[in-house]
Automatic annotation (TrEMBL):
<keyword id="KW-0378">Hydrolase</keyword>
<dbReference type="InterPro" id="IPR048816">
    <property type="entry name" value="Peptidase_M17_N_1"/>
</dbReference>
<feature type="domain" description="Cytosol aminopeptidase">
    <location>
        <begin position="308"/>
        <end position="315"/>
    </location>
</feature>
<dbReference type="Pfam" id="PF21337">
    <property type="entry name" value="Peptidase_M17_N_1"/>
</dbReference>
<protein>
    <submittedName>
        <fullName>M17 family metallopeptidase</fullName>
    </submittedName>
</protein>
<comment type="similarity">
    <text>Belongs to the peptidase M17 family.</text>
</comment>
<dbReference type="InterPro" id="IPR043472">
    <property type="entry name" value="Macro_dom-like"/>
</dbReference>
<keyword id="KW-0031">Aminopeptidase</keyword>
<dbReference type="InterPro" id="IPR000819">
    <property type="entry name" value="Peptidase_M17_C"/>
</dbReference>
<dbReference type="InterPro" id="IPR011356">
    <property type="entry name" value="Leucine_aapep/pepB"/>
</dbReference>
<keyword id="KW-0464">Manganese</keyword>
<keyword id="KW-0645">Protease</keyword>
<dbReference type="Pfam" id="PF00883">
    <property type="entry name" value="Peptidase_M17"/>
</dbReference>
Amino acid sequence: MPLTFAAPTEDAIPVHVIHADGLDGAVGQLPDQHQRWVKTQGFQAKLGQHLTLPDDDGQIARVLVGYGTPEQRARGRFHLGAVAAKLPDGTYRIAGGLDGSDLQEAALAWLLAGYSFDRYRKPAVPIAGLIAPEGIEARQIEIIAQGEALTRDLINTPTSDMGPADLENATRSLAAEHEAKINVTVGDDLISSGFPLIHTVGRASAQAPRLLDMRWGDQGPQLTLVGKGVCFDTGGLNIKPGASMGLMKKDMGGAATVLGLAHMIMGLGLRLRLRVLVPAVENSIDGNAFRPQDILTSRKGLTVEINNTDAEGRLVLADALTLSDEDSPDLVISMATLTGAARVAVGPDISPFYTDSDDHAAALSQAAHAVADPVWRLPFHTPYETMIEPGIADLDNAPKGGMAGSITAALFLRRFVESPYIHFDIYGWQPAAAPSRPKGGVGMGARAVLEALPALLEL
């Protein structure tokens, strides 16, 4: 369903957001019968609590929403989304209690609460509509919500309908929507075009591997986004156990996230030159699958010893990152569901990122806080470089020992980029339903990047 604000109407039901320490003052301004109703129902403005107040005809006159204490709110985000999903059908407006970034977040939370993945089932009942609050960038919030919905849809779609060819079609549709240019290199053409690692990882699949290359904009600094597009990961000959393979439709979450971010950038008409690179493959098993101890030569000329075929994401990214660097962009950002080690370090809700620039790190951290899209900087710890040097080749794709797995993967990728570079090791999955985030695919880090772009690129 389209995630948009409702058309203004004089009949919109007011929603009063009430902080716990402002309960008495807010209730004191209500009509006497509503004050009695609030007391009778035991409304205490607890976080997420809501109360509908009737008019003389039994219709909803207003809604009170509890916003709790700062300590309670700090334990989550998108709190208004939980309430929006529970309200009766109708059109609502926020009548007070929020301003600034809190109002922006609440409006986005309401829209995102309307997301539902309905491709394979009866569509969910639409949530109540919200009129865009005064003082917010309504169109910007709608575009952000739609970019997030695109990311979620791509991740949630199973590989039977989201293989490399389907991911290409989705990218072509996005390019057509925004009048962007796209070039696709498929199958054996990857070899002749100089993308040997992408070809090697994807050649065992029934759907040929491919590199998607989309460009948009002709003015301003150049931003190149690189997204890991492993549409399914069996682990290859180092096959995953069944329990670990269950969520591998989400292994293209990096690609889904950069495509959602690209929609936001293009939809907002930002003054920059955008390039999006997605190596789209399926890591399958067949007679021509790559093997442990194989030594592969990358586009950059660096050789890689394969010590685990399940560490394939960094291989396809290596060729794409090398290409990204060849036209000297102002900034390269890669996003990938790359390592389980990142989840162990920060859990499923935080997007860890790597950069050698303290200024970029500060800009991302500040932006993430402003838009409720949590990120955390992990180190490009150079002393660990020896861990990715196997001796027999330039690089090891799966260092032994199991330590610093996310860091060593990031260091591996850094070997292929000389331009200013930021890498995100995201999860791309909401393991349990939360306000405005149903269980399933989810965007991570994209809104923080979007908010930080003026500082990152000096726009």
